[in-house]
Amino acid sequence: MSAPRGSARPTPRAHDVGRGVVVEGDRFDGATSTPRPPRRRLDALPYVLVAPVAIFIVGLALVPAAFTIIESFFKVDALDPPTRFTGIGNFVEIFQNHTVMNSVANTAFYVVVGVGVSTVLAIAMAVLLQHPFRGRGLVIAILILPWALPGVVEGILWSGIFDPNSGLINGLVATFHLGAGNAVLLGQNQLLTLALIEVVQVWQITPLSTLLIFAALQLIPDEIYEAAVVDGANQWRSFTSITLPLARPGIAVAMVQALIATLNIFDQPYVLNGAASTGASVTMETYFISFQNLNFGQGYALSLLVALVTVTLSLVVVRFVYRKVEL
User: Fold this and answer.
1) Which residues, in sequence order, are CB contacts of 320 under 8 Å at separation 6+?
2) Taking each helix axis from N to C terminus, what angle separates 151-161 and 190-218, rounded to the nearest 10 degrees?
3) Thinking of the domain 98-321, which architecture would CATH place it in?
4) For residues 72 and 115, what is the distance between their CA atoms, to the nearest angstrom?
5) Contact between 261 and 267 (Cβ < 8 Å)
6) How far from the centroid of its chain's Cα atoms is residue 100's Cα?
7) What stretches of 69-126 adopt beta strand conformation (E)?
8) C-alpha–C-alpha distance, residues 253 and 80, integer Å
9) What pLDDT digit, counting tens, does each position of 139-176 carry?
10) Measured distance CA(208)–CA(250) in Å, rounded
11) How far is CA 140 from CA 67, 205, 278, in A?
């Protein structure tokens, strides 16, 4: 029945739901409107906490990087003032410098051998550490020591091993009557010098690569290996079909850190072989050009090229080695 004429219609009622308002009445036939979401208040605390780190990164990384990029196109030579724009002149002179090109070849050797050998050794050691055994924690603690030592300290330690008069290698040669035991191992033969310096470099970077790959292996469930055994897979098949594919994220990170370390190698060749060109790296040439020749423009340009090559090769490694794993 319709309401009598003149009778009062029901008055809409409103009540708060959260921060929204719901209106009820016969106009909506018992339906309610969708409550409006509450307005979020800006919380400044996270930004305040992050601000010091952000300022630190900008001040010590981004500003010097921008300065390097700009100054690499200028001739900044303390022996030939004033500073003036040269365009790509610094880069042209770098590629025409025979000493720099020799250091590029040396660094390429360090990168190829260092990344390859350290990755293979790291995978092997990580697999050995994958399953728990007594004393594993002690082994890991000892394993990390070479990585924890500064490069200069490592160079000094290994210079005693390579010493032509009282070094360990020449001592073993003399003990087993393999030679006179007084051979000069560093600085004479370029290939031998590069190989011995790279031994020291691999000794330093392999522990970190091992831990990175070991962490990836710890995420692989044991049930997968048990299922592989039930299906008749041997240890080699489990390694190639389970361990390597599922450890690829850790392997990629290990290869990137080894790549960065070998591209920027400085301490080991400088301490072991001095300024000799037989073992000089690109970063050493950057130091010589900038602080011995006082040609800062070419030093900036060479530093920029090293940074670009590092970023490019790192992206290539991530592109072809890294794979997202979903268990």
Assistant:
1) none
2) 130
3) Orthogonal Bundle (1.10)
4) 29
5) no
6) 25
7) 74-75, 84-85
8) 44
9) 888 888 889 888 888 889 998 888 888 788 888 887 88
10) 11
11) 41, 14, 35
